[in-house]
Every structure is written in structure tokens, then in C-alpha cells.
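Internal QA ticket QA-208
Title: Verify multi-chain structure generation after dependency bump
Assignee: T.L.

Test input:
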Amino acid sequence: MLELNFSQQLGNHQLTINQQLPAKGITAIFGVSGAGKTSLINAISGLTQPQQGSIRLNGRVLSDANSGVNLPPEKRRVGYVFQDARLFPHYRVRGNLQYGMAKSMQPQFDSLVQLLGIEPLLTRFPWSLSGGEKQRVAIGRALLSAPEILLLDEPLASLDIPRKRELLPYLQKLAQQVDIPLLYVSHSLDEILQLADNVLVLDEGKVKAFGALEQVWGSSAMRPWLPRAEQSSVLRVQVLEQHPHYQMTAVSLGDQHIWVSRLELPLKTPLRIRIQSADVSLVLQPPVNSSIRNVLPARVVELLEIEGQVEVRLQIGHRELWARITPWARDELAIKPGMWLYAQIKSVSITP
Amino acid sequence: MILSDAEWQAVELSLKVSTLAVICSLPLGILMAWILVRCDFPGKALLDSVIHLPLVLPPVVVGYLLLVAMGRRGFIGEWLYQWFGFSFAFSWRGAALASAVVAFPLMVRAIRLALEAVDTRLEQAARTLGAGRWRVFFTITLPLTLPGIIVGTVLGFARSLGEFGATITFVSNIPGETRTLPLAMYTLIETPGAEGAAARLCVIAVVLALASLLVSEWLARWGRKRLGA
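Actual output:
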């Protein structure tokens, strides 16, 4: 477990954080540029020193301003993957990987190299690698130093889209196979959706929200952050049944179910679905003779007006779903918090 | 042998003096370059100027100052002789000292340029991988500075080979002891009827200089290849 309780001056504003991060899984640190994301992980790695408070990793004090303890980076056992990879230009890939290799990691060298797909690169120099290859080597190098936590600072940010697509599956595989926590700094909602279990939202040096991805994503704290195209709900569901005649699969959402295009997955497989709020419309009566398959009874929790559109937070069982309607529709249907109505879901996308 | 004994003596002495001067001043040169690039302290500009002084002072002045400080009666030299029985005066070691002092600024400048170009973010990355300050210095900083160190060494060596004014002022012109190539050349020019011998020495000097330039070019290319640039 990583316990953060410190403050640090960053130019005009201050980074203040008091949060415990779980010992497993990927925690995304999300925020716009200048929100203090990189400063946060620099403080954890020891590249900068907080003015106040302490940082503890698995009970070990990394930094404590009161007692004057400040472990140097090399004593922290914190792995760091930089945005620009920072491979050593005078070592081959193998030399880079072995630079900080811990004895305990030696037996895992081959399997890790295979997992990252960098076997054919071992004898090459960094200048001959593509951006995605460099990042994979940098990830391997950091993991081989046997860290207790791995920090990733926007590892995809400097890559073009094909390279991003190439690297993402490796990160997903890594998250499943490595049993240390990963802190993943990003300003891309897309990456966070595909990778993170937990999200910490930073804004001007303050923690805006922290929790499981689905909760934070659905919370109203996150709404103003999501660009219009990203206004959506993320829900954790399970495969419930396959339709006997049609290419459709039902997934469970609380006590309700949603039909999606056929998924060739065994029953009870957990997965994550994403529903754009523009794809959810509201009706007061259950529609008859509608082409839309998914119509769920829902209760209105709140209405937020964002950029001339109304985002409606709905509760379905214990789950939450966002719908986008116009102010006109809101007034004509007289939608208010507490009201019961029906949500029609037009399409659902599956995220891994 | 193509070379006469006297010529061979001068060449051998020149190489010995220059090599010793470069080898002894290199660690100090790296240290000074590192201090000038990485440290910030009051008086840094003064230190920088003092290091560069031999570059702009007339070599005769440098030689005279060395004589005053390091000669048998000099305020450091006297002390050195009393305690260690060691003296620079009128010996080839003094010639090496004079060459080292004059070549030092050239060496520091070259190393400093290379050190300034080293990306400190690579050093940070090395530290997060568990390397302490010394390991980072020897495995990251120093290898990345290598091309500059090579250039600095060759420049220093070439400057030492050509050193004349400070040497003749400090340790005089003693055959077999302090008469390096330039001093031998000077002696021959002063001697009537030795034009032929002077021309021979001149050719030797050109060959030596050319050889050291070629070696430096080859080393620099090798260094760049190692850095993958």
C-alpha cells in the first residue's frame, strides 16, 4: 500500500495530497497538464522532495519532512517509466535491461522479455528502435529492478496512434501478470478506460475524486472533465446468457439485463461496457413496438447542465447511467430528480 | 636508424613529457569540468578565469610564475624538496608540469562542452534503477562525456608537444633532460650551419602532429559509434 500525505510547492500552486493507494492493480492518475500529475510521481520516486508530510510504501518510510528522512531514488525500490523512455544510448537493449537488474529477477529475464516482445531487439542500440519499442524496453528495464511499485508517466503520450495500438495490449497483459501496483499517469480518457482499475483525479494540485473507475467515471465530479465525445457511463457487468436465435448476448446490470452484439465468452465472464450518454434517451411510458431492445426502468438522481445540454444521472438498481437530453426535452417531460422513467439504450460498446 | 641520437632523444623526451602531462592532468581536468558544469557556488566565475589564465597569458609569464612557485627556492618548491626530496627544477618533470599547466584550459574546455551536453534526465533514470551517485557517474556520465574527453586529451597532448615558452623559462634547455622537440629546433636555428638538421626536425614535428590528429579522428569516430550517434 502506498500512503501519500504531503504537500509540495509547484510554481504558482501547491500539490496537496492525502490518499492511500491500493497495493494491487493499475491506478490511473488523471488530470489536465499542469494539474500536478508528474510532480506527484516525481515525489514518490524521490526525484523531488516534498516540503511537508510523508510518503510510505508498504510501511516503509520513503520521505518524511518531520523526521528529515528522504531516501535517495536508488534506495526506494520504485520503478519509473518516463514519457521519453530515457534509454541509455551507449548500452544495447540487453545492457539497458540489465542495468538495474536485481538478482531476484534474473530467472524472470527471459519470460519478461518474451512478454514484452523485445527478444529480437536485445542486441540493438536504442537509436534504432521505434518509440513503442523504446517504451517496451523501458518498462522491462524498470520491472527488472524488482520495484515494489511501478510509475508510468504517460508512456503512450509521445507515440503516434499505430504505436499506441501496438503498446496497449502489452500494458494490459502486464497489468494481469505483474503483482505490484502500477501508477499510470495520463490525460487520455481512452487509455484510462482500457487500463485502469482505480482512478485518482487531480486538479490544480488537489484530489478531486478517487475510487474504482466506474464510480469515479460516473460521479458528477468527473462530468465537467469529460469532453463531449467522452460523456459516457462505464459499467462493470457479467455475461448472463446467449440468445437462442439471434447473434445477441445478455449482460447483467444489477437486476436488469442489457442485450449487446454476440460475445463469444463463457457465462459469468466479467467485462466492462461503455454507454455514450448521447445514446441514452428517456421516455415516460414504456415504449410499444420500438426497435430499441434495451429499455430499463430508472430513477432520476440529478440533472447537470453542461454546454447547453442536460446530462441526466439515472439510477438503475445500484448502478448509475448518464443520459444526454436537450433543455427543451427536460422542460417538456418535466424531468426532476426523484422521478421514475424509462431509459432507452441505443448502443453499447465493450471495452476490455 | 633514420633519426640521429640527438633527434631521437628529443622526440622520445617530447612524447614522454606530453604523455605524463596529459595523464596527470586528465583526472583533475574532468573534476574541474564537472565542478564548472554541475556546481553553483560564489567565486565560480573566478575559478573559471583562473583555469583559463594560461590560455591568454604569455607562456613566458606562466614559466616565470612556475619558477617563482615551484623552483627549488620557490615557496611551494622549497617545501616539496624539504619534505619529499622532490623537485621540478631543471628536470623533465618540470617540463611536464609546464606543459600540463599550459594545456589544461584546452582540455577542460573540451570536456566541459561534452559534459554540458549530457542529459541529466538519463542520470535520473539510472538512479531510479538503483544506481548510486558514483555508479551513475562511471556508467552514465563519464561514458557519455567520452568523445569530449578524447578531444580534450588529444588537444592537450598536441599543445604539450608544442610547448616552448613556459618550458624554457621554467626548466631551461638541457639536452636529454628538458630539451624537447621545440627546444631542440630552437637550438638548431640558433646554431650557424645547422639548417639541414633543423629541416629534419621540422619534418619530424609535422609527422608527429599529423599522427596525433589522425589518432584523435579515429578515436572520436569510435566514440561516436559507441554512443550510437
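Spot checks passed. Residues 2-225 of chain A form a domain with the Rossmann fold fold (CATH 3.40.50.300).
Status: verified.
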